[in-house]
């Protein structure tokens, strides 16, 4: 990476993640995007062939999935004049918390939709999350080499179900066996599709102008159909508007096939042209920290263990918000009030771990973590403040965890607290007894925890069912009321891994009654780190 002025470096960067329903083509698109970024000689090495569906509690599969998402956690590549950071999100919905937090570290998202299926559940959920910050969305309608649904109907569905306006940038000509290519509405050119080119960067076969007779010569009757359709589309759909896009209210839509590596580059052109350069982030005091602020700052949005199986280390992923990271620089870890010197931050160039000399806003760096870094931690090299907005979600599944060997209580607690700091799971210690309750958003998290307790903390633990329906973090502006609540509701109160007071409800009815009975107490569904 060459050093430039801060604003030059900021202007070059685009940091995004892909949101999609499983099987829509996220992995395939990632491969092709990297191919275009020329980070991979030949696309197809992001992940090996899938070995069928994941057995729900098959640890080996999990380990594989983790191993895979680890090497591709963050990928940086050049595209045209830009430097693009693509952040991977776990595929399995049981790790959705991780995904939510990763979405706080990007400035835009690519939404991939299977053209034969349209808008699916997971996409709806993830779009809700992007709404929290009005993240700009680019849409890719995938699998045009198969018979897809009527494109206009697909756009309608996106608009009505996801409540975002669509502005088609390209328009497909046929699909499945008859997929001929796309017409680029803004450039007034047709780009023709050729099969069997999925593994290479193709020269674009372009026909300028919709009325060009060459179009009829090349695609026959499809040309006349296309002209008719484009007239219709222009009348029926929105024109691209950059302001609305940046406000998260309108999405440019591209059509193509990731597998055939067709259309991915059109989408990338749009991304580097329109997607925001690294955006400001807000502090817990409501101040905006812009990317061009000269002093360094950043926040940790993810901690991942076992990056390197040989070292069993843990890496904290930090999004740089402002200023410049230089190897060996000193920064302040705000939560613990300590200065640290960072000499060996990592970057992840298409799976390789490389030591970085410098990094800029929008970039992600990996810090070696020996247990002192938590999700949500802010690091600054200047003024001290704390970034806000990195959520913990109230778990929906609960189990009591018990040791096989009761003498290892201390290790168990240590392990659980560390795993909860990583966001792998949440742990609750009731005020009224010595139970340890593990809370998760997805059931696979339970398996991960038991496996890691064994391999990293040498603790054998088992689960027992427990009668808990939900948990809420509680707070109050009135200390006295909070004390009273603590006394009266002690049977239902616990401390989480970070010692935050939590209400543990055996049923939803119980929770509702408690919120009515204690109007001065706030019950929170999410907790900010
Ligand atoms: P995901 O990460 O979103 O879960 O999706 P992934 O890229 O793994 O794609 C899911 C399946 O869809 C894969 O097939 C992949 O080859 C296929 N696919 C992706 N893009 C396209 C496309 O443009 N056209 C067609 N026809 N298929 C596409 P699979 O058989 O499940 O896996 P594999 O054995 O090919 O790896």
From TrEMBL:
User: Per the record's keyword annotation, is DNA-binding included, yes or no?
Assistant: no
User: Where found, per UniProt?
Assistant: Cytoplasm
Indicate which residues the UniProt annotation says bind GTP: 20-27, 88-92, 142-145
UniProt keyword Glycosyltransferase present: no
Give GO BP annotations, semicolon-separated. Answer: regulation of translational termination
Keywords from UniProt, A to Z, are:
Cytoplasm, GTP-binding, Nucleotide-binding, Protein biosynthesis
Query: Where does the Tr-type G domain lie?
Result: 11-279
InterPro entries to which the protein is assigned, alphabetical: EF-G-like_DII, EFG_III/V, G_TR_CS, P-loop_NTPase, PrfC, RF3_C, RF3_dom_3_sf, RF3_GTP-bd
Record GO terms (molecular function): GTP binding; GTPase activity; guanosine tetraphosphate binding; translation release factor activity, codon nonspecific; translation release factor activity, codon specific
The record's comment on protein family reads:
Belongs to the TRAFAC class translation factor GTPase superfamily. Classic translation factor GTPase family. PrfC subfamily.
Q: What does this protein do?
A: Increases the formation of ribosomal termination complexes and stimulates activities of RF-1 and RF-2. It binds guanine nucleotides and has strong preference for UGA stop codons. It may interact directly with the ribosome. The stimulation of RF-1 and RF-2 is significantly reduced by GTP and GDP, but not by GMP.
Q: What is this protein called?
A: Peptide chain release factor 3
Organism in which the protein naturally occurs:
Pseudidiomarina aquimaris
**Organism taxonomic ancestry:** Bacteria, Pseudomonadati, Pseudomonadota, Gammaproteobacteria, Alteromonadales
The gene from which this protein is expressed is: prfC
